[in-house]
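If you are new to this repository, start here. Below is one unmodified record pulled from the training split, so you can see the exact layout before writing a loader.
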Amino acid sequence: MDYKYQLILLGSEVEAKPKILSILFQKINDLGLPENILKIIEADKINSDYLGNQPAFGLYFGDVEGKHKHIDITDMLLKDGTMILPVYFGNPDGAFSKEIPNNLTNQNGIRFSENELDRIANIILESFELLRSTRKIFISYKRNESTSVAIQLYEALESYNYDVFLDTHTIGKAEPFQDELWHRMTDCDVIVLLNTPKFLESHWCKEEFAEAGTKKIGLVQLVWPHHDIKKIDSGSHLSYPLILKESDFVASIYDDKDKSKLVDIMVKEIIQKVESVRARNLASRQDNLITEFRNIAVECGRTVNVQPEKFLTENLPSGKRIIYIPTIGIPQSTSCQSAEIRHEIEINKDTSVRLIYDDLRIRDKWIKHLDWLNDNFKKDILTLKKQEFKSWLQTTK
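And here is the target side for that same chain:
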């Protein structure tokens, strides 16, 4: 690959650096992307290795003694429009302003800890548009068993900039409840499922669990104390259980729907697990959509090629080229704005883009909206829903 995502490492030499790179490459593997998609540039190689016309993101590692390095490089990157994430290490009070140079003090930073590794790696991937920046979580629970914990997790995940769906807090007045629930589940990254003893006795909880399996959505299961996980584990596509103990609840109260609360350390562990599952879940759902589209294309006599960056291309006899981008959840315009896609369009001007997506359970009003956009706006960037894959491939040349 001659087109790379540049990660620039600035500031102090710290033990955190190899740990972040290790988890970052692990996530790149989880996404099914080639490792050489990422180019690591140390500060002393910036003049020889950095290319201003290719996507870049910077990490600035703070110095606990306040000895700031690479100020000139940081200024240059900021002028180029490069995002830089400050990472600091000392106690929260005053550590950021001491460890991070003045030209970065208006940036939001992260205080490093082992628990933040997944979050830092995901921020890097989001900045490169390799992982979508909308961070959508769906909480599935039984109201008469775990309402207080569901609300606690809703508030905790929102504080970490997740867009959280919780039925009692999220669905607006006069909205069709069940349609909106399925719609939001389809568009989520991960489901946090509160696996309480009578969860499956609820018709709708059982439906939500089955829907997660059908849509291949990853589950972070919180299994209540003294509950048998085998009762719910069989139908899940990607399931990551956390077996809770009585001591994981404040005052060991785990069976009161209004009073039960998780201890802070467990809440942080759950958020960390959600962060770690996002990339794997996205990759799995993309792979499923790619496989289905490619199989239909072969059946229709079309030749589509899967690129290492997980989009598909087709060269037509007319000389035109089509890029198919697998889109998870509801298609957004940002899905076709990744650097690699822009590069593909730049080198072949006679290129059109199709955002392919699974329309199952997406609300009719959104489907109609996307169809309207197809009919009325730019014809070289269109959406293509799963139920029309075959008819479109059979008739379009």
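Two things worth knowing about this chain: The chain has a mean pLDDT of 87. Residues 264-299 form the longest helix (36 residues).
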